[in-house]
Amino acid sequence: QVQLVESGGGSVQAGGSLRLSCAASEYTISNYCMGWFRQAPGKEREGVVVIHTDGGTIYYADSVKGRFTISQDNAKNTLYLQMNSLKPEDTAMYYCAAATPLKGVACITAIQALGHWGQGTQVTVSS
User: How would you class 118 by CB atoms within 10 Å of its CB: exposed for 0-12, middle for 13-18, buried for 19 or more?
Assistant: First the structure.
């Protein structure tokens, strides 16, 4: 069974940085749609950064452009999210997700429809 395990969350002050990791088991992360989503209390889950791991399209939410960077290590089957210049509004539970790419369908849509999800890691940014 596919498993995604996130780590790296924590509490930081505004302006700080965190690096989230998502280790995937049971399959290699190459040629998949993978991404990071987040959900703050009382808010809907939103896509933060989504990538097609064959090196194709990367989606960044406007709110994180220039601050967050997604990367992958195929040898380690691990996806990363480097978060810099963190703001209190970045506080949320962050989830890693993956899905098989669907022809003609954006990766973020494929994940939301058919994705596998990790258990989440909490990020708290204080002002």
Answer: buried
